[in-house]
Amino acid sequence: MVINGRTYDDEVEDRTLLSDFIRHQAGLTGTHVGCEHGVCGACTVQLDGEPVRSCLMLAVQADGRSLRTVEGLAGPDGELSVLQRAFTEHHALQCGFCTAGFLMTADALLRRRETGSISEAEIREELAGNLCRCTGYEGIVAAVRTAAQSPRH
Amino acid sequence: MTTRLVGAPLTRREDARVLRGETRYVDDIVIPGAAQAAFVRSPHASAAIQSIAVPEPSEADGLLAVITGRELAGLRSFPVMEPRGAHVAAGEAHPVLPVDEVRYAGQPVAAVIARTRALAEDAAELVEVEYEARPAVLSPRASDLTLMRWSQRTGDVDAAFAAAAHVVTGRYALPRLVAAPMEARGAIARYDADADGLTVWCSAQDIHRSRAQLSHILGRDEGTIHLIVPDVGGAFGSKGVVAPEVAAIAAAAIRLGVPVRWTEDRLENLVGAYQGRGIEGDVALALAADGRMLALRARLWADLGGYLLTTTPIPPHTAATLITGVYDIPAADVEVTGARTHKVPTGPYRGAGRPDAAYMIERLVDRAARELDLDRIELRRRNLIRRFPHRTPTGLEYDSGDYERCLDLALELAGPDQPSRPLGADVARGTGFAMYVERAGGGFESARIQLRPGGRFLIDSSSSPHGQGHDITFAQIAAERLQTAPGAIELRFGDSASAPGGVGTFGSRSVAQAGSAVARAADAMVGEGARLAAHLLGLEAGAVRLTPAGFLGDGAALSWAEIADSAAAPDGHPPGGAPGPLQASARFESANVFSSGVHAAEVDIDPETGQLSVRRLVAVDDAGTLINPLLAHGQVIGGVVQALGECLVEEAVYDDDGQMRSGSFLDYSLLTAAEIPPIITGEVETPTPLNPLGAKGAGEGGAVGALPAVANAVTDALGGRHVEPPYTADKLWRALHGADDRPAVPEERR
Question: Which of B8, B225, B517, B577 is the most core-located residue (most Cβ within 10 A)?
Fold first, then answer.
């Protein structure tokens, strides 16, 4: 499979979860595993552009597909994206464990809605598949609003 | 000109690393050759272990060992803290692995060590344990086994009750809760036999307590344990005691000579990690005809679970000592009994006794206002503590506060009181206010600071973060005193090889204790710098002063960079001075400081469905001087939302056999972004006189005040009927329609 533009060619057990492949075989540990039963969203990655829970997929299901993880969000020169910068400005992360999942969900939302504003209620609904225990979501919602109001690319 | 950094809302510096995915949580750390542990857990809440049959180690199956309680017979059980004046049954401490009985479903019984996690889980299924199930005791009041007791009687309580114009009573209960940090627990243990050194990377709140607990359990000197706390994905109190599983893998790493990793999964965390709250009580207040509070009686029962972990006795003691709240009550008779039940042990969870106390006293005060037909705000005003320090009848000394200012600000932010509509209207609306006082700070922490080339500083703090933002906060504290930029200051945390002595990150104490140690160390560094600058400028030590441009004296200036260069030079120090880079260190210790606040809530209940809708929340908190208001605000909001979850959905539910029925995130719900009402915050800053910063603590207040505020609003909406949280539609509908066959007691009448 291709992750963040790089090809990973490896053998997996049939029972290996995609999340475990990403973390332990591809070595991309920025994607975190919070519940392994598809509720918390910490393991969210983008599969062919769509946010998915990598703990609910087997690695073999992603064979030949294109994935994007949190390590692929910054620009080629390493510059943080508008969304990433907004997370710091709005104190949208405390312990940081859920952050990668929120970034991948929010980034997909911003890409899907290339133009126009997104209401706070809509942002909250879109983010309701990701759990954060630290922030109370205020900073995360504010960060996504800020990013939505900025030029996207 | 002095640079003001204290009070500046600076953003964090560790974020960029997290945002790029360059994290180092314990499961992100690669240790070549590390084996993995899986645990066999008790399916029974209470049972005798009759036999354990284990598979033989097998190279083909990648199975290295199965370790049971018998193999670990040489280990000690957990050390147990004894709150001042409390009786604690230390013989009931949690063992690493049990030998002949289990006392909660989910208790680890055997550690299975294999080459991979999947192989370890496969082999765990081959372990056969024969149990003889026993009846489970689940209610603390039904238990005849006391694990902890504390009581205090101050003043003539009986006389006060006998003479009182009014006596108001209430019976209250809070369910067990799960801390549920997004990163569950985990650790890696590696043993170096040649050096007899054990290295443990642990997802923990601090290095100090984790190391002390492992030292006690393993029976090895602290000096032989290198404890590293890497990035930690939240704790909320639940990582202040190492898991029994961590002690087990440490023992396994020593026995097997291979590094061993344990990564807890969510289902294990929900059933096996120590839980919070689980307390109930009967509380009575004696009042004079004018509403003055004369005396309080409280009998509390805490559901402590099957064993004592290190901090299990602390939250019930905290609840009991804070039970008089913000009120000037001269006499009190308070007793708390921590009972053994067949559930996972309890321990600190955000608030750790503080919300319990605030919930009981604030519900009772609202009830008193109803019964005395007094305005609930006015009744509070008549009884507020106004002089500090204030000694409570439970033995605490409140250092500072301005409770009335918090109350006035909360009233202003809440807006005009909207009268509750009568039942039967299209919606039942209620408003509620609650006040709280929070024990924060206390104990010691330390810091060491070193001047480095280019005028940069390295600070080793004894405290370590798990999301709070120690780094920029401490940099602000030090930079202001050193008259430099925060960017010149690097903080280092969480490694016992470099950290100075301390206690840990819990109880809203990091800024007050560890921040004050940083301030004192920075002050000492300024003294060292001035001494050297005076020497270099040929002046008396008192003739130089520090400015943003450096040390000034007699028209000359020396920057920190120049001081650093001189300190490195062989002859750079005055005679008798130690050569090498300038260093300073400080240890700071103080009594507890007391944060406080007033929260308000406005709620609607749909009479058709019983559905509760929290329309908005107001949170006014006084955490003393705020170092970084951006991060303090984050703490308040995060705490308020945890309290809101406690009000709306969170409850660790057990069936009659002691099986946890909320053992997944589908059953134990956490609130999502779509369920949060507007939260209006206000700050009052009453500095404490007990530390150089004036800072108290902001970590728990949000979680303390919002619970009783919502509870009072719900009771208001129900016309005085009391229901215990979580306020599910089922309970509220029954309360509204008088269909209570359960505890929704109509205890309040006008």
Answer: B517
Question: How many angstroms separate the CA atoms of B60 and B79, rounded?
Answer: 39
User: Could you give the dihedral angle defined by the CA atoms of residues B636, B640, B642 and B644, in that order, rounded to the nearest 10 degrees?
Assistant: -170
| Single pTM value for the model | 0.96
With H, G, I as helix, E, B as strand and everything else as coil, classify residue B489.
Answer: strand
Residue-wise pLDDT for B532-553, tens only, equals 999 999 998 889 999 999 999 9
Judge whether B699 is closer than 8 Å to chain A, CB to CB.
no
How far is B496 from B218, CA to CA, in rounded Å? 17
Q: Which of A70, A107, A30, A41 is nearest to B673 (CA)?
A: A41
Distance from A146 to chain B by nearest Cα, in Å? 16
Q: Do B665 and A131 touch (CB under 8 A)?
A: yes
Beta strand residue intervals within B403-496, DSSP E: 428-452, 456-461, 489-492
Confidence at residue B164, expressed as pLDDT on a 0 to 100 scale: 98
Assess contact for B723 and B731: CB atoms under 8 A.
Answer: yes
Distance of CA B663 to the CA centre of its chain: 22
**Whether B641 and A136 lie within 8 Å, measured CB to CB:** yes
Q: Per residue in A90-134, pLDDT tens?
A: 999 999 999 999 999 999 999 998 777 899 999 999 999 999 999
Q: Over the stretch A29-54, which tens digit does the pLDDT of each residue have? A: 999 999 999 999 999 999 999 999 99
Task: Give every CB contact of residue B11 below 8 A, 6+ residues apart in sequence.
Answer: A88, A89, A91, B472, B630
Residues of chain B with pLDDT under 50: 1, 740-750
ipTM: 0.98
Which residues 257-286 in chain B show a CB within 8 A of chain A? 265-267
Residue B446: both structure tokens together: 């330390």
Residues 10-29 of A with CB under 8 A from B: 13, 15, 23, 27-29
Q: What is the DSSP letter of B330?
A: S
Tell me how far CA of residue B104 lies from CA of A57, A128, B660, in angstroms. 33, 33, 10
Closest CA relative to residue B682, chosen from B306, B322, B450, B408: B408
Report how far residue B479's alpha carbon sits from residue B13's, in angstroms, rounded to the nearest whole number.
Answer: 15
pLDDT (0 to 100) of residue B741: 45
DSSP B726-738: S--HHHHHHHHTT
In contact, B250 and B190? CB cutoff 8 Å: no
Q: Is B319 within 8 Å of B356 (Cβ atoms)?
A: yes
CA of B468 vs chain A CAs: smallest distance (Å): 6
- Asked if the peptide bond before residue B726 counts as cis, ω within 30 degrees of 0, the response is yes
